[in-house]
Design a protein that fits this description.
Layout (H helix, E strand, L loop, with lengths): L3 E7 L3 H9 L19 E6 L3 E11 L3 E10 L15 E9 L2 E9 L8 H22 L8
Antiparallel strand pairs: 1-6, 2-3, 3-4, 4-5, 5-6
């Protein structure tokens, strides 16, 4: 089973990229209830009122690696049969120094093309990572979900 993976270069520092994920997700993805400052921290995210996910910080290696495990999932969509489809999956962000910036590699471990939500989730990650996070790191103006 393959996982969703993407990577992109940002002219930002690894420190800024790391903080964008651990402390500023609401600025580029969707409202997040709390930052991820230490292993074990928990935060809830949501889309369109009914859909939400709860993540627990599994690994936090400053400026290098973040893993957030989905401990609760309630994905409400016509594109999904199982609202808990993301439960047990992990958001993995890897940061490496590249010339004049940072290479960011993202893998959603457990999100695969076999899943019913694949097209919707892939499209969402493509937008929020390649556009919104990229814009946030470049000029501080991401394009987050506003629900």
């Amino acid at each position: 089973m393959s996982n969703y993976t993407t990577s992109f270069f940002s002219p930002s520092s690894r420190e800024d990229a790391y903080k964008a994920v651990t402390e500023k997700m609401s600025q580029w993805w969707t409202p997040v209830s709390a930052p991820f400052l230490k292993v074990g921290d928990i935060a809830k995210t949501g889309f369109k009122g009914q859909s939400y996910w709860v993540f627990r910080a599994k690994i936090l290696k400053p400026e290098k690696l973040i893993e957030l495990e989905c401990t609760e999932s309630n994905m409400v969509s016509d594109n999904v049969d199982d609202p808990e489809e993301w439960k047990g999956s992990t958001l993995r962000f890897e940061f490496s120094e590249e010339n004049t910036g940072t290479l960011i590699k993202f893998t959603h471990i457990g999100l695969s093309p076999e899943m019913k939500c694949w097209d919707m989730c892939k499209s969402g990650w493509d937008y929020y990572l390649q556009e919104s996070l990229q814009d946030y790191l470049k000029d501080g103006a991401g394009k987050p979900n506003s629900y």
